[in-house]
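User: Can you write out an input/output pair for a complex, sequences first and structure second?

Assistant: Here is one pair. Inputs:
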Amino acid sequence: MANETFGLLCIGNELLSGKVAETNLAYWIQEFKKLGRRVTVAIMAPDERSLLVDTIRFIRQNCDILLMSGGIGPTHDDFTLPVLAEALNKPLVRYPELVEAIEGYYGENTNSHLLSMADLPEGTELLYWDQLLVPLFRVEQIYVFPGAPNLLRKKFSLLAKDLSSIPNYVHKIYTTFDEGVIAGPMEQIEQRFPGVYVGSYPRYDPGADYRVLVTMESKDKELLQRAYENLMTQDFQSGVLRVNSEEPKPVSTDS
Amino acid sequence: MANETFGLLCIGNELLSGKVAETNLAYWIQEFKKLGRRVTVAIMAPDERSLLVDTIRFIRQNCDILLMSGGIGPTHDDFTLPVLAEALNKPLVRYPELVEAIEGYYGENTNSHLLSMADLPEGTELLYWDQLLVPLFRVEQIYVFPGAPNLLRKKFSLLAKDLSSIPNYVHKIYTTFDEGVIAGPMEQIEQRFPGVYVGSYPRYDPGADYRVLVTMESKDKELLQRAYENLMTQDFQSGVLRVNSEEPKPVSTDS
């Protein structure tokens, strides 16, 4: 898993109606940041079957790996797994080991709604089950998480250990320039140093001492340093207040 | 604007890399909640032209109205407006009134990067310019906002006054049931009372006094009451701890 691209999908009417504040996307984005990776696209979508099928297909066209959460419970608005089967053109298959687990947990309260949680797209793997009450599901390059944040985090912390970390080096340059004035130099740097990414973030707060934060980042420390020195030898340095540099952070695996 | 569906798109690598925490989606979702409306889909996407074109088209296929933010500044990673022109198959047109405003503001510092902010998809309307330094852009049913949260909020508060409010009535029912056990009754209510939406939210915190929060909501107060009474006459009531009812809230127009 060195260069894959990642898409995120959080499912639930309650997220889009504002009844529940969405927190899983922000959590995942920060965890991928610790791993030195950037998410390609992040989506909140409602409990609507045909829209979900389209959304899953849209993300798959643009990302190698999809992490999705929500809609895997037993109620009428839980249909992530059937939708996933449809999006992948796979049949749903009842997993006997999940039936056994559900019957073991619910006993005489077991009913058809609960048993529907044992129906997964054909070929789904059950991961980390020895460490979890309910396994993490993977089918092709799609990982299916529960919507509840504490359960999602527990499962992701197990997966994160298996994702290799790619370090990212960053310079944050605080300047007094107007963004339009330095647009040219920044564009040149990106063109001359492929693999170095330049961002600019105007600060609109009148209390701030800077006007634009310029960021330069790369996985190649030496390349980043050459690009940085190149930018600084232009007229640029006259408007620089200060520079903060970030080394890669170690991967967190706690939850 | 009575029954339209809304899609949201926030653009910026910094959101997906975790460098900047995304706050505009959560803001918009809460504002739409105050208006009694639900957002259909909400997406964070990076500064990548072809992916943005595809994302805009994907949202347009599923929503009547699109609100998008970010990427409208003068730098090399700002190309929301050209991308929008491409997604809509419209040419970019230079707006003389915007050129005049840019030259008036920047004087002798005006350059080609700054002037590119005056190039809009053909047919774009400039809204609320008498009340704003930079107008809100609308083209077809797409509204284009800046990414900076304070500017976005100021512009949205003007637009919100023109969106008619549809009240939403809600019952929140806190129960001691397991979610699987009440899946059947909840499904029946949605089938028998079209226009009433039932949601269920398990509480995983062991400190909570309830196990599942059931929500019922509708824009039709009487219909909601009939559905509520129907649910309560089943065996359901034995597991209900308490019920909170919400009346529609007035629309907030402050920012």
